[in-house]
Amino acid sequence: MFTKAKNIDTAFRHVRSLTLVVIIASATLCCFALFKSYEMVQAAHSKVYILANGKVLDAYASERKENIPVEARDHVATFHRFFFSLDPDDKVIQSNVVKALYLADASAKAQYENLKESGFYTSIISGNISQQIQIDSVQINTDAYPYYFNCTASQRIIRATSIVTRRLITEGYLRSVTRSDNNPHGFLIERWTTLENKDVNIQNR
């Protein structure tokens, strides 16, 4: 009789141990499944599809801090392209300047007003002059806010009789603002100044 009781007790211990193992394994499996499901949902939310030229492209969202240097460089380059790309057409000049001024503060507006008052844009139109710019480098310092930048570019001033190449160096600071259609990067250029703007080559046509 005692032997049977002992066997029953041993069997009960085995069943209890097996049950505990099954419960722990099931709980671990459920937690793992929930974790993987959460990862998949997060990945799905960060993935978007872009339709470009009839092709579907994958894109992934990321934190802005990871893209600040890239976006900042493109913002500075875009501003300079709009501000310094000129053709002998008043509407083209106005369109480009307006787009540029959305990306900068009053320091850029002041430079535009100075150029306008000096007759710079009038001479561009009357002399059938085109001005093109190529951005050579944009250096961004993200260690301190607002972010300091230094931009080096080459200008080509195309006249009827010559092509003048100028070296342009500017600097300023970038402040974060709300993104919009007119300012998709969400930066505003402040304290923008020209450090150097001089002729480096003149080519006769």
UniProtKB/TrEMBL annotation:
Keywords, alphabetical: Membrane, Transmembrane, Transmembrane helix
Transmembrane spans: 15-35
Lineage summary: Bacteria, Pseudomonadati, Bacteroidota, Cytophagia, Cytophagales
InterPro entries: Conjug_transposon_TraK
Protein name from the UniProt record: Bacteroides conjugative transposon TraK protein
